[in-house]
């Protein structure tokens, strides 16, 4: 397997008193989180709990009503934070451009910013695809790929910029169980090789407990608990217990 890119290691993320409302409805109600450099923090919660909105704030797609986010101690409101630190994001849909080949999708950032000649970009695309165990698919289009392959291409596209922070929004959604396991393995493997700081938003319990260093449970815009997977399993909080033990029972009357 090819060597992983040098990401210079992950950086810490601090979320302080983050609040956000939309149309008068409070979505984030004073979120506080400390994400350690190089760790995988999984953010879990029911639909509408504020998980994705939190992720969008970390990457600067949303502005908070109150509170702040710091990257390596620097507020993201500083003009140069997104120039100084590299962010990669894997969107829930994958967000691949259907009119472009896999190679064009993965190398898009490098091409747009002229970070190498065509031969150099092609080499980096090939190397990065190999990191997610995809080979000889550079000429294919997204429509020719399975759901799991599309997600891995999206990871490669984020990885090619050698990020210090990787953000994943529901990376196993709409995948079959085997593909979901593959994506979980990729997230864990990439973190171990590059030491990138990873924030994973999901409601997938298998993914969460399989990759997380720590898990943050969010309910109705508030953090209920942050802890190791074992600490989450042992929580006496009824909301947390109901969420992580939820099951569909055929014998319901």
Give a description of the structure.
The model is unreliable at 1-7 (pLDDT under 50). The longest helix has 18 residues, at 177-194. The protein has ten helices and ten strands. It is an alpha/beta fold and 253 residues long. The chain has a domain at 97-162. The termini are far apart. Helix content is 34%, strand content 24%. It has helices at residues 51-58, 81-84, 102-106, 108-112, 118-131, 147-159, 177-194, 205-211, 229-233, 238-244, and strands spanning 13-22, 25-35, 40-44, 66-71, 74-75, 87-90, 165-169, 197-202, 214-219, 222-227. The strands form two sheets. Strands 6-7-8-3-9-10 form a six-stranded mixed sheet, with helices on both faces. The protein has a four-stranded antiparallel sheet with strand order 2-1-4-5, covered by helices on one side. A hairpin with a 2-residue loop joins β4 and β5.
Mean pLDDT figure: 88
**Residue share in helices?**
25-40%
Number of helices: 10
The strand line-up of the biggest sheet is 6-7-8-3-9-10
Write the layout of secondary structure elements.
Layout (H helix, E strand, L loop, with lengths): L12 E10 L2 E11 L4 E5 L6 H8 L7 E6 L2 E2 L5 H4 L2 E4 L11 H5 L1 H5 L5 H14 L15 H13 L5 E5 L7 H18 L2 E6 L2 H7 L2 E6 L2 E6 L1 H5 L4 H7 L9
Parallel strand pairs: 3-8, 3-9, 6-7, 7-8
Antiparallel strand pairs: 1-2, 1-4, 4-5, 9-10
């Amino acid at each position: 397997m090819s060597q992983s890119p040098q990401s210079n290691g992950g950086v810490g993320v601090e979320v302080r008193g983050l609040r956000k409302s939309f149309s008068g409805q409070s979505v984030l109600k004073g979120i506080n989180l400390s994400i350690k450099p190089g760790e995988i923090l999984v953010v879990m919660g029911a639909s509408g709990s504020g998980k994705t909105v939190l992720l969008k704030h970390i990457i600067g797609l949303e502005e908070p009503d109150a509170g702040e986010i710091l990257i390596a101690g620097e507020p993201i409101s500083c003009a140069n934070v997104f120039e100084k630190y590299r962010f990669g994001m894997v969107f829930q849909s994958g967000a691949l451009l259907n009119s472009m080949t896999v190679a064009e999708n993965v190398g898009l950032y490098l091409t747009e910013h002229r970070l190498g000649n065509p031969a150099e970009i092609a080499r980096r695309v090939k190397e990065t695809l190999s990191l997610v165990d995809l080979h000889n698919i550079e000429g294919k289009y997204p429509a020719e790929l399975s759901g799991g392959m599309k997600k891995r291409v999206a990871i490669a596209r984020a990885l090619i910029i050698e990020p210090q922070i990787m953000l994943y929004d529901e990376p196993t959604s709409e995948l079959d169980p085997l593909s979901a396991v593959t994506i979980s393995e990729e997230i864990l493997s990439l973190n171990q090789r590059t030491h990138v700081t990873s924030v994973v938003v999901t409601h997938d319990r298998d993914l969460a407990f399989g990759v997380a260093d720590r898990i943050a449970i969010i309910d109705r815009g508030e953090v209920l608990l942050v802890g190791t997977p074992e600490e989450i399993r042992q929580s006496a909080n009824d909301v947390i217990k109901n969420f992580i033990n939820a099951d569909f029972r055929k014998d319901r009357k």
